[in-house]
Amino acid sequence: MFYFFLFLLSVFAYLFNLSSYPLLSPFVSLINRLLMPVMEFKAQTTRRVQDLVNTYVFLVDTQKRNRKLVEEVNALSLKVSELEGCKRELLQLKGLMEEPPTVEYTLAGVVAYDPSGRDEFMLLDKGKRDGLEEGFVVAHRNVFLGIVDQVYAGTSRVRTVWSDNLHVSATAGGKNYIYRGGFPKGSLLHVAQEDELKKGEKVFLRSLRLPPLEIGEVYEVYPSGEQFFKRVEVKPYGDVRRVDFVLVLRRRL
């Protein structure tokens, strides 16, 4: 209140030019000296408040920019992830197409696997609309994966080399057999006791109309109690869950 009163006196002295009067000049000078610290403090306070306001505005602007940058970084990370996925798909496609089969085929994507974990079947994103039919052979590069056994409008199901219900003609060691699927191992049927199949011997799909496709290799040969045949286990090469794309060969066995 006191300084406010001095401020009013100073304004009054300025308006009426009281400092020009010799008797009042010392009084006006005293008032100005008393008000000077207050005015300086006010000026400093004003500058500090202005600096704080500017700092606040800068921080708010920086925060907005940081949020925008975070959003841009997240968007770029998503794009990088998508590009990596595309890169993996392209590499897999390149692997599929290095040696194009001599028969007509359809490139299909794998959309689902056997939920039981036995990998007995997989679902493809191609179906009747794409010309697929039951009995078509499914392969990945030079490896036999299975047979199309159910076809729908836009999807189809493949019975894989791990399925107990898969039976196909096969060759191993220069002789013909029947390969029966199974998990975790398949087997060769009707292997004569005198047939000299060894562990590691490759087993191929047998077909007159298709290129040779590998089913797997002999895992173990066991002596059998039967008089004519012995038991032969086969380890399939087809790793169904590592495959994203397959070739559906438009041929039946």
UniProtKB/TrEMBL annotation:
Keywords: Cell shape
GO terms for cellular component: plasma membrane
Lineage: Bacteria, Pseudomonadati, Aquificota, Aquificia, Aquificales
Family from the record: Belongs to the MreC family.
BP GO terms, sorted: regulation of cell shape
Residues covered by the Rod shape-determining protein MreC beta-barrel core domain: 110-249
Organism: Thermocrinis ruber
InterPro entries: Cell/Rod_1, Cell/Rod_MreC_2, MreC, MreC_beta-barrel_core
Protein name listed in UniProt: Cell shape-determining protein MreC
Keyword ATP-binding: no
Superkingdom of the source species: Bacteria
